[in-house]
Amino acid sequence: MANRSRAGAVVSLALLDIFTLVAGLAVAGLLPARLALWQVARVSAAPEHPGQSVLSPAAARGPSPAAPAIARALTPLLASPALGPNPEAYVTDLATGRVLYARNSTVGSTPASSAKLVTAEAALTVLGPGARLATSVVAGASAGSIVLVGGGDPTLAAGHPPSPSYPEPATLASLAATTARWLHAHGRSAVHLSYDAALFTGPALAPGWTTQYVTTGNVTPISALEVDQGRLTASGAPQDADNPDNYRPRSMTPALEAADAFAGFLRARGVRVVGALTGTSHRPGTTVIARVQSPPVAAIVAQMLRESNNVIAEDLARQVALRTGYPASFAGAAAAVTAAVARLGVRGGIHLVDGSGLSPQDLITPRALVGLVTLAAAGRHPQLGRLIPGLPVAGFSGTLAPGQSVFGGFGRAALGRVRAKTGNLTRVASLTGLVTDSQGQVLVFAFMAHQFTPSNLINAATALDSMATALAGCGCR
Prior knowledge:
By secondary structure, the chain is α+β, with helices and mostly antiparallel strands. It contains 13 helices and 13 strands. The strands form three sheets. Strands 3, 4, 5, 6, 7 and 8 form a six-stranded mixed β-sheet that branches. β1 (about 90-95) and β2 (about 100-105) form a beta hairpin. α4 (about 115-125) packs antiparallel against α8 (about 295-305).
């Protein structure tokens, strides 16, 4: 059984270096420079290959790295004052599972956006890579009314985003066009419009969140109906672009904002919207007038990981909750995604209160984070095969591209050889992923620091980058 697992890992890990270089070069020129603020790292979208997990063809061949050599490479870097006291690290050999380095590895600390790995694996497993999320228009209770029903699609756009947008989202403009055709075909030129965001329950902000998260452009209050993730233009209209460089305050009323945009598209199609927009809850079984669907969950997960997108993470976590019988609230979603990865084998070491890692009350151990990455990379769970290609690549894409976050300060050895999920809050930095060392061995790592001063955030992230670089350059035999 062990030999079959080992062989499976070899097959599933083929071609990382080639794929990474090609994908990295393809996207390197597409990513605009940005300054890293205190907020969770974000980055503009760039398409990546949606294929299966691929890693180094040399994985699982040759002698395993020696733990003492790994220790010599990492221990001095962990002593950096920038990391504060008690940083944490855990490194394993992917092919054998052997622990190569452990420091405070069973201590739970705030993971920041590394928590999105939990949500990603839960969504891919429970929903499936090909699942799509629907936004609908249904007949209202009276003959002259219709209801816009939010289905929890975090990528839903108002109008049509720029053509290079990836993945291409469903739009309210398309939904309105279909709705208008139906109304005209039934002799209706005026309707009363209401909106239904009742799919999700509970508070719109998680424990530990503040309204500053909204006013600094990190997230919109979580709703089953929203467009453009609550991002607004200077005039207050939906932005119609996946633009993480927009630091304007997001909408505090995303469902109403979406309904208002939808009403505008109906008017443009010759349908008069009468009366005030009102919230409601439609009854199951009512006539569906129009429907649009999101991109596949695999593409949404990749976008979430690449951009460290908070709204996507929270919506996906609630979808997992709905599918598995938990309440579609922050508490229910956190419990649902934790239970989902426990069923995969990562049990213990995870305490979440949200699905994105925005809350400082979230806690995960480095050992649990390494367990999550190992699950996705080892090839024993095909539905997780889309996760590793979605991770940012050091020096080339996502939050590991130069200037795209507080991370990105990698040495030459790490470029194209590290795939990792970043995480940062004001006093927290984490880096979790895979690295191919100089001998072709694939190592899984989690580095965390959570007791430094806010002024040291960039220095702390750079120190974690240096640790990943050290692994990439280490033969460590």
